[in-house]
Amino acid sequence: QVQLVESGGGLVQAGASLRLSCVVSGRTFSTANMAWYRQAPGKERECVAAMSWDGGITRYAGSVKDRFTVSRDNAKNTMYLQMNSLKRGDTAIYYCNTDPPRWPNWGQGTQVTVSS
């Protein structure tokens, strides 16, 4: 059974940076197209960044493009999200899953809170 563990969130001021990590176990991470998702209070979960299994293709939501960078280390079964120039609108719980999401057991997510 797949286990997704997200970490790296926190409370930061606008303009700061954070680096999120997603560790996957129980499934073959290295051949999975992966994505970062976020869900803000009262809003639906949205995909903010995605990366193909080999890292060759990336995709970003317009709201985070040029500020967020997704990467992965298949040897460590880990995906990262470097978030720069954070804005209050980035406040949400961040999750990882496949792209599109196929693994039913979502992780706990990691809370990112950006204050002005």
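Second entry:
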Amino acid sequence: QVQLVESGGGLVQVGGSLRLSCAASGRAFSSYAMAWFRQAPGREREFVASINWSGGSSGYAASVQGRFFISRDNAKNTVYLQMNSLKPEDTGVYYCHATEGTVPYWGQGTRVTVSS
């Protein structure tokens, strides 16, 4: 069983930055593929960014490419999402996602609100 706890959300003005963190339990964290998803009010959950087990490969949704950066620290069992140049459309609940083998896990989410 993998538990994921997100933190770092909050209220920020347009153009600002936030860094989200996701702390994971489990001794095999360094083998997990990790990702961030988000869900805006009234919309479906969508992919934001992903990173492989070593941190050597990452991917981003087109809407955040060049503004958001995913990273991980396997020594701390933590994955991060650095969010820059935030826009109102980035508002939503951000969820951490882990894949252990073929089994997916989700965190409880952290809310990000970008005010104009």
